[in-house]
Amino acid sequence: MFRIKGVELAAALIAFTANGSLATAASAQTTGTVTVTGRVTTSDGKPVSDARVYVPGSNEATRTDARGNYSLAGVPGGPQVVVVRKSGYAPVRTDAKFSTKPSDRARNNVNVTLLTSDQAATELARSARDSAALDKVGFFRREASVRGAYFITPDQIDQQKAVRLSDIVRQVPVLVETVGRTGPVLRGVRGCLITYVDGFPWRSMFPGDLDSYVSARDVVAVEAYGPGLAPPTPFVRGAFRSNCTTLGLWTRSGMG
C-alpha cells in the first residue's frame, strides 16, 4: 500500500490550488491518446493490403497500405484491443496496453498475422492439442499452485515470434544468458542450471546445445524454478541442489 508523506501531501495541496484540481491532471494522463502503428502480413510474411484495422474502445479505424502498414491516431492509452479484418481471412483480436510515455512507444506497435479460415481451424486444433498435452503433464496445475516459479504459456510464446529457444527465456529473471563459441549459452542466476526437456534430464554435450537441438517453433511452454525453490515432479532427480536453477521445456514433438 502506498502512503503520501507530509511534504508530498503539502506539495499536492499546492498543486491543487494552482491548477484547480488534481483530478484534472490525473485525467489528462489517463485520457492521453497515442498513434498505433504496425504491419499486417500473411502466415508466410507477405503484406496484406486493404485490411481493416480498428480499436473498438476508440471508434478509430483505418486500412493497411500496399505494404501492409497502418497508422491509427487518436487511440486512448491503456488497455485496448486491436481488431484486424480482411475478406478471406479469419479476423484477429490482439490485446494491447498502449502508453503515452515516449520511452514506451514500442508498446504502441502491433504487428498482426492473418490466417485463412482453414489455417485458423488448423491452428485452433493444434492449440487444443497443446493445451491437452500440457494439462496431462501438469503444467497448468503447477502454474496455478507453485509460488515463486516462472511460467511461459503457449500464448506468450506465440506472441514472441522467437527465432531461438534462448529468445523465449531471455526475460526469465532466474536465468542468465552468456555468449559461447556456438551462440547463446543459458546458465542459472547462480551459475548452476539443471534442464529438463519433456520431463527428461537434458545431458548437455557442449555449451549452448539447447539452441542447436531444440527448435523455438517446437517449444510449447516453459517453467523455471530459481535457487532455493525445490522443483516439483517431474523435475526431481536425486538430492535437491539449492544453488541451482531448474528449467523445464515442453515441446510439441516430445509431448506428441
What does this entry look like structurally?
There is one protein chain. Helix content is 28%, strand content 33%. By secondary structure, the chain is an alpha+beta fold. The protein has a 5-stranded mixed beta sheet. A 4-stranded mixed beta sheet has the order 4-1-8-6. Strands 3-2-5-7 form a 4-stranded antiparallel beta sheet, with no helix packed on it. The model is unreliable at 1-30 (pLDDT under 50).
What's the quick description here?
The protein has 256 residues and is of the alpha+beta class. The protein has helices at 6-19, 22-30, 117-136, 139-145, 154-160, 165-169, 209-213, 252-255, and strands spanning 33-42, 52-55, 60-63, 69-76, 78-85, 89-90, 92-98, 112-116, 150-152, 175-179, 184-188, 192-197, 200-201, 219-225, 244-251.
Task: Name a few traits of the molecule.
15 strands; 4-stranded mixed sheet; 33% strand; 256 residues; alpha+beta; elongated; 8 helices; single chain
